[in-house]
Amino acid sequence: MQTTWLSGAEWFAVLRIGLGLWWLESWRHKDKKEWFKGGGIAWAGGIAEKHRWPLVRTGFDTVVRPRPRLMAYLVAYAELALGLGLILGFLTPVALVCGLLLSLIYLVLMIHDWAEQGQNLMMALIAVVTLFGMGWQTWSLDETLGLFL
């Protein structure tokens, strides 16, 4: 692939690392004390209660609401793991698929808030492009360890 300045594989690595930094920032900016006390899950619960799609309300009430502490830890540390995995390029295809799923979950939950949609859609798009561009081919632990050749 002919590109300016960097090779195609390097540009995909730039996307991968940038997406990883975005997930890391998503983890970093959380008020952990309040988040782990259930503040984030309570906020999401308020959004789910008013959601226009009954499936979202039902799903939230079935899966998340009964386990607020577990879900708070799961969300926070999933964002941290995604960030570190993508930055380091470790288990990159797994991280990209999981990040895509998490972005889509956020997208569906926040379907009414167009300010949030831009971020979620962009993160999903970058994940798809990097996945199909095999963004682990360079500047990654996957490349160094010979994974996903």
Automatic annotation (TrEMBL):
Tell me the domain of life: Bacteria
The answer to whether keyword Transferase applies is no
Please provide, in alphabetical order, the Gene Ontology terms of the cellular component aspect for this entry. Answer: membrane
Query: Is Membrane set as a keyword in this record?
Result: yes
Which positions, given as ranges, span the membrane?
Answer: 6-24, 94-114, 121-139
Principal localization? membrane
**Which InterPro entries does the record associate with it?**
DoxX
Where does the record place it?
Membrane
- A Pfam family that this protein carries is DoxX
The membrane-topology field of this record reads:
Multi-pass membrane protein
Q: Which UniProt keywords apply?
A: Membrane, Transmembrane, Transmembrane helix
- Name this protein carries in UniProt: DoxX family membrane protein
